[in-house]
Write a structure and sequence with these properties.
The protein has 21 helices and two strands. The protein is an all-alpha fold and about 500 residues long. It has one domain. A two-stranded antiparallel ribbon has the order 1-2. A hairpin with a 6-residue loop joins β1 and β2.
């Protein structure tokens, strides 16, 4: 409690509170805009955080991350198009409620469930961060190498329709990581004789290119824009209904917290599982998909509980479990902060501010949600042809401002084109980004482990932790492929 009170003293300072409010407002906006999401929003504000100290920078990013998860429900309910993929399950019952004139009621349920889910996710972060960090102190080079491989294998297989495409995307990220000088020998790698590539490719321009510019290009080419149907109803959920929905919210939050802590799973999976389990637990499963309030409460609680839970492996082990936490990791590294087992001890004041900041961000989200719904539903009428060029311009200017180097802007544009081509071909971007981030961890610890073992690869099998993680990584690669083969075999027989 002393740590939490210290954190509130920092988070409620006027400047820090202002950054939390700004992050919350922007988060709701990017969450509500089809084509944008928390990852794009984080990539856009990343250059802004470079001039800030670690506390306001982190508070702004986590508040944006939290609010964007809720913001996706606005368009999911009002136009049947999820503003972001975690809000997909919300469309199943939210949009039918809107069509029968109960959009205000549906939006109120979504907001209330998101707030409760966000609080539960923050509590999970407070409880689990310390023990998981202490567990990570037992990790040496061998275990850290295996952990990096495990983290990469999970994301490569859980994202995208094809596991093979996920693996190819991850390998592509590892290749781009190799550009520059070898960390140990100093010899150039994949520089193509270009002097400017000797320093390697900066992580932040690549993140902005992959997640902001690529998505903008995709939206511009598809020429899709939302069309708001009807008006938002004036009805709001009553106190009795919100109390009645508590079991649904509790189940959704528990599912979101459990799945969110697994690297690679993510809020989309959590919200879909929560909706399905709520339908199974309901006495009236036939009402789901036709406007059941429980079908909104459970997935919205789940995807917001995922935010705090997803921060646990990021901060305790340095493993980002989603695209958004990957961008967060990039922002922390720019601030000179490396998450991992020592994070809690080395940055105690930052951790206390983070704990309190999560709770303050949830309250700000509640206020912004209540006051801003009419505004956001007007903004979602903007066509992609107007909004997305603005996103590209802001991205390039922000990338150039990082170091005042035009090359960084060209790198962001290049990776925006690469990301756009990958999206068009069905290749997921998250594994590539994880390859960029986990590549240094994998290579450095692999070399260190071989040096300590005099070149023997048996060292990776002698450590129980390393052996377990490598077995899990192999299973993570193999299981989706085998599952797909079995499905194809059964389909062929029928």
């Amino acid at each position: 409690m002393a740590i939490l009170f210290e954190g509130f003293a920092a988070a409620l300072q006027p400047a820090n509170l202002g950054f939390i409010l700004a992050g919350t407002a922007l988060g709701v906006f990017v969450g509500a805009m089809p084509g944008l999401n928390s990852t794009v929003g984080l990539a856009l504000v990343l250059p802004i955080t470079f001039s800030l100290t670690p506390v306001p920078a982190l508070l702004m990013m986590v508040s944006l991350y939290m609010a964007a998860q809720y913001g996706g429900s606005i368009t999911a309910i009002t136009i049947g198009v999820p503003g972001s993929s975690p809000a997909l399950a919300t469309t199943f019952d939210g949009y039918p409620m809107c069509r029968r004139g109960e959009a205000g009621r549906a939006l109120g349920i979504s907001l209330f469930a998101s707030v409760i889910g966000g609080v539960i996710g923050a509590i999970l972060l407070m409880i689990a961060l310390d023990p998981l960090s202490r567990m990570g102190l037992a990790f040496g080079p061998t275990e850290s190498f295996a952990l990096g491989v495990f983290g990469l294998s999970i994301v490569a297989n859980l994202v995208g329709e094809s596991p093979v495409k996920g693996i190819v995307s991850a390998v592509l990220g590892l290749v781009f990581f190799l550009v520059g000088l070898d960390v140990l020998t100093g010899s150039p790698r994949l520089t193509l004789g270009v002097p400017v590539l000797m320093d390697g490719l900066e992580l932040v321009p690549m993140l902005i290119g992959f997640f902001a510019i690529a998505e903008a290009f995709k939206a511009i080419v598809s020429r899709t824009g939302p069309n708001l149907v009807g008006k938002i109803g004036a009805t709001r959920p009553g106190a009795r209904e919100l109390v009645r929905l508590w079991p649904s919210i509790a189940r959704g939050s528990a599912i979101g917290g459990a799945i969110g802590a697994i690297p690679g799973a993510g809020a989309t999976i959590a919200s879909l599982v929560a909706w399905n389990e709520e339908k199974r637990a309901s006495r009236r499963p036939e009402t789901f998909g036709r406007g059941a309030p429980e079908g909104i409460a459970a997935p919205e609680a789940a995807n917001n509980a995922c935010v705090g839970a997803a921060m646990i492996p990021l901060l305790a082990l340095g493993i980002p479990g989603s695209a958004s936490t990957a961008v967060l990791l990039g922002g922390l590294r720019v601030q000179g902060i490396s998450p991992g087992p020592l994070f809690l001890d080395e940055h105690a004041s930052l951790v206390s501010s983070l704990y309190a900041g999560f709770l303050v961000a949830v309250l700000c989200m509640l206020a912004v949600g209540i006051l801003g719904i009419p505004l956001w539903t007007r903004v979602v009428r903007l066509p992609s042809s107007v909004l997305m060029p603005i996103v590209v311009g802001i991205s390039l200017v922000g990338t150039f401002a990082l170091r005042g180097n035009p090359f960084d802007a060209w790198v962001a544009l290049f990776f925006g084109v690469i990301g756009f081509v990958m999206l068009r071909r069905g290749y997921p971007l998250v594994p590539a980004v994880l390859g960029l981030i986990l590549g240094p961890m994998i290579e450095t610890n692999y070399r260190r482990a071989l040096t300590l073992s005099s070149g023997s690869h048996a060292t990776f099998l002698e450590s129980p932790i390393s052996l377990l993680l490598l077995v899990l990584a192999a299973a993570s690669f193999a299981v989706p492929v085998l599952r797909r083969r079995i499905i194809q075999w059964r389909s062929a027989r029928t």
